[in-house]
Amino acid sequence: MWPTILDTLGALAVLASVAAQIAFIRKTRQSASREARPESARRKPFR
Predict the structure, then answer these.
(1) pLDDT per residue over 21-40, tens digit each?
(2) CB of 42 closer than 8 Å to CB of 34
(3) What is the pLDDT of residue 36?
(4) Which residue stretches belong to region Disordered (predicted)?
(5) pLDDT for res 41
(6) Three-state SS string across the chain, please?
(7) Distance between CA 13 and CA 8 in Å, rounded?
């Protein structure tokens, strides 16, 4: 029983790590692409 529980916890830890890496990559890509665009191409807030 314990090996199954530990394997499951290990798999969940791996999935959480991958999800965190994907979120970090997406965040850094968005900020990099935001800086690369000229000011005129950026979205203006709707008023």
Answers:
(1) 999 999 888 877 766 666 66
(2) yes
(3) 64
(4) 28-47
(5) 60
(6) CHHHHHHHHHHHHHHHHHHHHHHHHHHHHHHHHHHHCCHHHCCCCCC
(7) 9
Tokens of 44: 């203006």
Q: Are 27 and 35 spatial neighbours (Cβ–Cβ below 8 Å)?
A: no
- State the average pLDDT for the chain: 85
Q: Which two tokens stand for residue 12?
A: 């969940």
Q: Both tokens of residue 46?
A: 């709707």
C-alpha to C-alpha distance for 8 and 23, rounded to whole angstroms: 23
* Distance between first and last Cα of the chain: 59
